[in-house]
Amino acid sequence: MSSTRTALSSGNWTFLSSFSDFVPDANVSDVVNFGRLACQRGWRLNSRGWRSRWRTCFHREYIPEHNPYADPHFDFFMSFPGFRTEESCAVGDEFARLAQFMKWMPGTHEYNVYRSQAFRSAFTVHYGADASKLDVWQTLCMEVGIQPAPSSITKCKKALKRVHVNIVDLVNCRRSGSTVQRFHSYNELKRYTCERGKGRVFPRELAKEEGFIKALLKAFLHPE
Fold first, then answer.
1. Closest to 68 (Cα-Cα) out of 132, 121, 25
2. Does residue 3 lie within any of the structural domains?
3. Which of 115, 25, 16, 133 minimizes the C-alpha distance to 79?
4. What's the rounded Cα separation, in Å, for the pair 219 and 161?
5. What is the rounded average pLDDT of the residues 14-19?
6. Confidence grade of residue 89 (pLDDT, cut at 50, 70, 90)
7. Within-domain flag for 108
8. Domain annotation covers residue 197
9. Which of 11-15, 50-54, 183-187, 188-192 is the most confident on average?
10. If phi over 0 gives left and psi between -120 and 50 gives alpha, with beta otherwise, what is residue 220?
11. Which residue segment(s) compose the domain that 160 sits in?
């Protein structure tokens, strides 16, 4: 991820500064600043609009290796001036606070777009974006109680298909350091996940994006 740590250039700064409601942070890279701006404007990662604006800013094509949400210096909730974050707060609860602060109404397109951004950022910060790293899969396996961890990515994926955990809870537990709850069956997990008003459904649209999220959702959402 060295590409995300480049210094701000005058050309990039010109693009980032062209938005009157956005103030670039000189203490982080231009890529992280682009990610902060994208969060504020609701640009979906790797969408046509995202790629077009990326080209305008950086004068090159976007590639997944440049994903700003994978940079450890990126914080979705710090992207909104005036909002005070609580680092120990669950992602869903933190987003609910942010939505109230920004006056995003639940169920609206704006609310759903930003909720996806929040979970994408939190997931990437805690798990990364590269689905080809065995150590990440092994850490995840141990996190959900699979020990010893399998010796290959294929075996990890197969083992995860037999584990029933809520992915929103998984991200929240990684953030808080607590242990994620396991369910005895897929149907039990489904009832828990779909309970109205609890905010336990992970944004399904993230499964369309290449990377670790897609691979993990495929493993969890298609159990054996």
1. 121
2. yes
3. 25
4. 5
5. 90
6. confident
7. no
8. yes
9. 50-54
10. alpha
11. 126-221
